[in-house]
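Input:
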Amino acid sequence: MAEEFEPKIVAFLCKWCSSAGSDLAGVSRMEYPYNVVPITVMCSGSISPLYILSAFSRGADGVLVSGCHPGDCHYIKGNFYARRRIALINKLLDFIGLEPQRFQMSWVSAAEGTKYTEIIKDFVKELKPLGPQTKLGRDL
Amino acid sequence: MKRTGVFICHCGINIAGTVDVKKVAKELSNHTGVVHSEEYIYMCSDPGQNLIIEAIKENQLDSVVVACCSPTLHETTFRNTVKSAGINPFQCEIANIREQCSWVHKDMEKATEKAIKLTKSAVERVHRNESLDPISIPVTRRALVVGGGIAGIQSALDLANSGYEVILVERSPSIGGHMIQLSETFPTLDCSQCILTPKMVEVSKHPKIKLLTYSEIQDISGYVGNFKVKILKKPTYVDPDKCTLCDECTKVCPVVVPNEFDLGLTGRRAVYMPFPQAIPATYTLDIKSCPGLLPIACGKCADVCEPEAIDYDMKPEIVEEEVGAIIVATGFDLYDKELMAEYGHGKYADVLDGLQFERLCSASGPTTGKILRPSDHKEPKEVVFIQCVGSRDPELHCAYCSKICCMYTAKHAMLYKHHVPDGQAYIFYIDIRSGGKGYEEFVQRAVEEDGALYLRGKVSKIFEDKGKIKVWGVDTLSGKDIEIDADMVVLATAMRPSEGAEELAKKLKIALDKDGFLSEAHPKLRPVESVTPGMFLAGAAQAPKDIPEAVAQASGAAAKAIAILSQERLFHAPTVAKVNVNLCTGCGMCVHVCPYDSLSLKDGKAEVNEVLCEGCGTCSATCLRAAIEVKNLTPLQVNEMIGASLGG
Amino acid sequence: MVSLEDLKKEAKQILKENKVKYIIGYKKSTNGLMPVPAFIKEPEEVEKLVWDPTCVFNLTRYLVDEKRRKTKEKEPDERPVGLVVKGCDSRAINILLQEKFINREDVYLLGVSCENTGVLDEKKLTKKIKGEKVKKVEFDEKDNFIITTQEGKTKIPAKEILANRCLECKANFPVIYDVLLGEKAKRSIDNPFESIEKIESLSTEERWTFWKKQLDKCIRCYACRSVCPMCYCDECVADTISFAVTADTTAEEKAQKIKWVEKSPVSSENFIYHMVRAIHLAGRCIDCGECERACPLDIPLRFLNRKLEKEAKELFGFEAGFDPDQPSLISCFKDEDPEDFIR
Ligand SMILES: Cc1cc2nc3c(=O)[nH]c(=O)nc-3n(C[C@H](O)[C@H](O)[C@H](O)COP(=O)(O)OP(=O)(O)OC[C@H]3O[C@@H](n4cnc5c(N)ncnc54)[C@H](O)[C@@H]3O)c2cc1C
Ligand code: SF4
Ligand code: SF4
Ligand code: FES
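Output:
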């Protein structure tokens, strides 16, 4: 039998909430799929749409962007800017025909280890039936 | 090409139990730019750290990645380690292979694979890290306090007594704030003026305090440690040095306007002293009520002033000061009369607010401490007190609880009974909130010793009828309708941020909460700091508070300010934004998004104020030209990290 | 009606008065169907000027060259450039102002209204008149164009030859100008995003097939970027080895450049290039349609920009190019911005 498809996911997590939330999941020993490799950035507001496109072109099967809940951003308003910027790239990815499941955004606070775990589990579950992402992947 | 060393920690079995650390070390040793790679049981232990130091020396490493627990735990540890081996601390990065890997996975092979990606990602990052030194800022070791109520007074005295110069700016002609208007204070019923005036005098006499009354903040620039403040000193037209307080001027002044200190229960002249204990002790000519100085319409006061203290030519003055820290203590105001028309406030003379009642009780008040009705100066025999007027009413008024009204209403009922032993006090309430040392006992005393009758329920209607004020309401406990023929009604109106707080907050660039009170940086952990470094909050400006709380916060704010002022220099993380002027087109989008106002346009290019920048990177994601980036987490670095994370 | 004579008169006047250093307008092409840019310095030359629905170019792009030239000059001529602008072009001016690329006093705007019509699509027109030389294009004020060729006059319904963008344009008169020629006639369009909605209604896979077919054609000639008035960056993030690299650029500096997009015109890179471009134009594209017109392979590039224009409007109530003082789309936010896509 062929091996089950294991999606590769890059997760951009803001340092103060989402990365801290994933640390909490760790401290609480909550198990979740290992498909996600997190990249901790300072704030969701620093995540450029280019990061997301770059991840897809480098073969990511899914990309997650996660920051603090509105009003909780360590830098006061970074996540509000992120929300706008990411909404646009999200719509564009959908418009060109990338499966909408492949790109996700979430608010995960430092206390939401469980939520982080759930998001990863769901994400992996939704990506598995889609198979590898080849549309934007670079095969040079 | 950098010479990077990679150190993988077993963390006992915490990491090594799930991640094949040997394999990670081996894989990484093959990675470009990695010249040394090893694992050890506890990297953070002394031998572990020594091992890093040895490896740095032996292999001439210029950068280090430690794959271990979350950077929140040991990033500082390892940065100090590399520093002691002579490497810039910013050449050390952490790969979190515990919280984000070994602790959440079980499958050794797959967890190892992920740990390799995480570590390579950190290596890619460190390869392009710059060596950085903390940004150092000199500190102007003086403070500004805005607002001269009890909170501002306390902060100013604490700072001054610690040896720092303080500029205390008060908008009205005297310091004292609302506390000076109070009669006696809960829960001990000591006389408010008796405990406050010594402090006011201390302020005026303190060699370290520069008091600017009748003054307002006009402009603030700069940043923590180095603020520049412009203060507008309004003309009082009376030279305090010449004025002998003879009071001749008020005798001839023909104008009478409501006296703010007595909340309109008495009148004052256009030239006046706010109250006998005012600090500074001098007169003020209120230009708004004077019939005119340009040209002189009346001139009587100057005529009678023998020491020639009255100077009609006095001009507004701009005072410029440099300070290192700012405390904002602008206090509160009571909710507008007009907005409370449903309770007849402002319509019926005998419907008063709490502060007016304080003045009636006060020995220095309009009735010299006798409680008399404003309408006919008769002693009221039945008084209705209504709590939560405008508070806890999200639909029509303020959603929040004003916190102090339960307590001062109990106090009012007591004081009333002490003045009018045969009178009856009724109190309409929603519930009684008396948390605080001695507070619950205080309310009980009002009920048990002074016979205050608490009625749980809301008032439905208030109207005047044959010299009485009829109060209709429902007692929700008994379900009965209540009708009281009161002689006087006292409203415990909501506290709101003081007039002009919003404007001031804009100048200071500190945030307001949804109710317009000044926002603290964190509701639990940073309750006296504003989000702007170097600016602190004290007293009722931040939220409704009573005196002990205002004083406690004021001392807290002073301590926070001293933490800055006691330093010669401040240090700031150097991972800040930097602009590539060749690419910048000067569109100003980054300037607009920066939450800290750290960017500006100069000669058509963006410029970073490194002291203000917190390194959030919002600017860099906004810039369409990739012309601005945050040091040591640049788009180039992130892009390489993306590659490594995907195993490429 | 915009009168060409009025336009010439205005142009002559400002040149005579030395108010502008030169005027950029349209003149007849010697061999092509559509007029070409005219750079007019002398009052006598204004006779060359033309204005009719074949004046498709967005001349604001020339301000980019003008600015580059000016920054190099030692003693630059500080007088403004005169510019003929249509509705869409004028919105481009607003964006350039908003982004401080130009100052208001750098331009003198001769606004011309499209008055209920718009400009023609060269390809559509060519098909209709089958290679004949066009002498005159008139609008009959009723929804038809009267095209005069050697062969005589033909009446063609406007819908059939108007440029795609004009069919969806609801602000077909200048929003910023120094003189306005013609009426500010507002046009009512049922659904300005009809074409976008058609694509949206396709399934994900159908959309993918559509775009794959279109974008696979791209040869990365960058014509779209070269005509776009908003693509004025000295160095494009999608192609970092362009302008800002000089002879002095060291290998190390080159290594510091990110390659978000590879140069080769393969499918994946074409997608990333066009998506980067679209996302960078979000809230800035004013739909002048130049990219689509310039594309030698007829890729419907407008759709990408229009899609984000639609989202900006629907999600954030944002419209580009109407107010030079508003903050740009991505440098502001509202508390109530939608977040139903966020978990
Ligand atoms: C009816 C009533 C009874 C009370 N009874 C009691 C009691 O018995 N016990 C108790 O503990 N508490 C009591 N309180 C609460 C007490 O009054 C407050 O806790 C206290 O006054 C808060 O002090 P503060 O310095 O924060 O504000 P404030 O007293 O309001 O002082 C603020 C000062 O700042 C000045 N200011 C405002 N804006 C500016 C500006 N822009 N620039 C310069 N200066 C400015 C104002 O003029 C004022 O002098 C009572 C309150 C009320 C309303
Ligand atoms: S956003 Fe970019 S181009 Fe615009 S001013 Fe800032 S750094 Fe310069
Ligand atoms: S990194 Fe953040 S704080 Fe620093 S300049 Fe950019 S937006 Fe402002
Ligand atoms: S710090 Fe978490 S979103 Fe800004």
